[in-house]
C-alpha cells in the first residue's frame, strides 16, 4: 500500500526531507500531512490525483523521513517549510491540500502568502474552535506532559484508532509505520513542541488570530470534515463556513479525522469537483 517513488531533497533552509513528485504540467497540487504522519498517509489518493495533475507531497521536518531540527515547531515553522519546498521546486503558486496540522499551517500561510495559494483544501484543521480531544491535550500538562507524550507502539495505536471513525482503518501496517518514524531521534521533542505550540491543557491556542486569518483568506477553499471526528469536533466545520469568505463545506458521514485515508472515494470526488479543470 505504501509504494511511493520518492526522492530525498535538501530544502533551501538546509533541512533534508523526502518528496513525492508525480511530474506533469499545470498548477501543481501540494499535499500537507498531519501531526506524526508522513507522505504515506496520501497513498490511497495521490496516484489517482496524479492521473491528470502534477501532485507533490513531502514530509514536514520533524516527521516521516525528514530531519528533526531543534526548532519551535510552531505555525511559523511549518509555514516556512511549505515556502521552502515551493522555493526549492521553483513553484510560484499551487493548489494546496492540508490535513489537520497541514491545514492549520495553510490558514496561517495565507496571512502573508495568499498569492502562493491558488485553491485550498482544509481537512479538519485545528483553530476553528477551542475544543480538542482531551487525549491530544495531555502532552501539554506541566511536568508530566513530556513523559506522557513519549511515543510508543501502544500510544500511536491509541491515537490512530481514536482518530478513525472505524478503528479497522488504523491498520497494523499504518501503526507500525507511524511508530517506526516516531522512534527516530528527535521525534519525541518534535511531537511535544508541535502539540504545545497549538494547544494548552484547556484547548486550542490563538483561535482569535486564526479566525482573523480565516476571515481574510480570500482564496477558494474547500473544507472537508468527518462527522465522526473525535480530534476536533465537526461543529467547527460550521465555524469555518461562517468565517471563510469563499468556501464550500462538505461533512462526511462514516469518517473521522482523515477523509483521504478513511473515505478516499469521497475525498477524490470532492477535490476533483472543486479544483479547476487540469490543462
Structure, described:
With 279 residues, this protein is of the alpha/beta class. It has one domain: Rossmann fold (3-Layer(aba) Sandwich), CATH 3.40.50.1820. It is 38% helix and 17% strand. The protein has helices spanning 46-49, 75-88, 101-113, 134-137, 145-148, 153-163, 172-182, 187-198, 207-215, 235-243, 259-262, 264-274, and strands at 6-10, 16-21, 29-32, 55-58, 94-99, 117-123, 199-200, 203-204, 221-226, 247-252. Strands 1-2-4-3-5-6-9-10 form an eight-stranded mixed β-sheet, with helices on both faces. Strand 7 (199-200) and strand 8 form a beta hairpin. The longest helix is centred in the N-terminal third of the chain and has 14 residues, at 75-88.
Query: What is the N-to-C order of secondary-structure elements (H for helix, E for strand)?
Result: EEEHEHEHEHHHHHEEHEHEHH
Instruction: Write down how many β-strands occur, each being a DSSP E stretch of 2 or more residues.
Output: 10
CATH superfamily: Alpha/Beta hydrolase fold, catalytic domain
Mean pLDDT level: 96
Query: Uncertain runs with pLDDT below 50, 5 residues or more?
Result: none
Shape: globular
Task: Give the biggest sheet.
Answer: 8 strands, mixed
Question: CATH class, anyone?
Answer: Alpha Beta
Q: Report strand order across the widest sheet.
A: 1-2-4-3-5-6-9-10
| CATH-level-2 architecture | 3-Layer(aba) Sandwich
Q: Cα-atom Rg, whole angstroms?
A: 17 Å
What share of the residues does DSSP label as strand, in percent?
Answer: 15-25%
Helix content: 25-40%
End-to-end C-alpha gap: 29 Å
Say what the CATH topology is: Rossmann fold
| Number of helices, where a helix is a run of at least 4 consecutive DSSP H or I residues | 12
How many structural domains?
Answer: 1
Backbone structural class: alpha/beta
Amino acid at each position: 500500500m505504501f509504494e511511493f517513488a520518492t526522492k530525498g531533497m535538501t530544502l533551501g533552509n538546509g533541512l533534508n526531507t523526502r518528496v513525492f513528485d508525480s511530474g506533469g504540467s499545470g498548477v501543481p497540487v501540494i499535499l500537507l500531512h498531519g501531526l506524526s504522519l508522513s507522505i504515506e498517509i496520501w497513498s490511497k489518493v495521490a496516484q489517482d490525483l496524479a492521473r491528470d495533475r502534477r501532485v507533490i507531497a513531502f514530509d514536514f521536518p520533524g516527521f516521516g523521513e525528514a530531519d528533526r531540527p531543534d526548532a519551535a515547531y510552531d505555525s511559523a515553522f511549518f509555514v516556512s517549510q511549505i515556502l521552502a519546498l515551493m522555493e526549492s521546486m521553483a513553484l510560484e503558486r499551487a493548489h494546496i491540500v492540508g490535513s489537520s496540522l497541514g491545514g492549520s499551517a495553510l490558514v496561517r500561510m495565507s496571512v502573508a502568502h495568499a498569492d502562493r495559494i491558488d485553491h485550498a483544501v482544509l481537512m479538519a484543521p485545528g483553530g476553528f474552535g477551542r475544543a480538542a480531544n482531551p487525549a491530544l491535550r495531555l502532552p501539554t500538562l506541566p511536568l508530566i506532559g513530556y513523559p506522557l507524550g513519549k511515543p510508543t507502539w501502544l500510544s500511536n495505536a491509541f491515537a490512530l484508532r481514536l482518530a478513525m471513525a472505524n478503528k479497522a482503518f488504523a491498520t497494523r501496517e499504518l501503526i507500525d509505520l507511524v511508530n517506526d518514524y516516531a522512534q527516530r531521534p528527535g521525534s519525541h521533542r518534535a511531537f511535544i513542541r508541535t502539540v504545545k505550540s497549538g494547544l494548552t491543557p484547556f484547548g486550542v491556542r490563538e483561535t482569535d488570530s486564526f479566525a482573523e486569518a480565516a476571515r481574510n483568506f480570500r482564496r477558494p477553499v474547500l473544507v472537508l470534515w468527518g462527522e465522526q471526528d473525535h480530534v476536533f469536533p465537526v461543529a467547527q466545520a460550521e465555524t469555518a463556513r461562517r468565517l471563510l469568505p469563499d468556501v464550500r463545506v462538505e461533512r462526511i458521514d462514516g469518517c473521522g479525522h482523515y477523509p483521504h485515508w478513511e473515505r478516499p472515494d469521497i475525498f477524490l470526488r470532492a477535490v476533483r469537483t472543486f479544483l479547476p479543470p487540469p490543462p
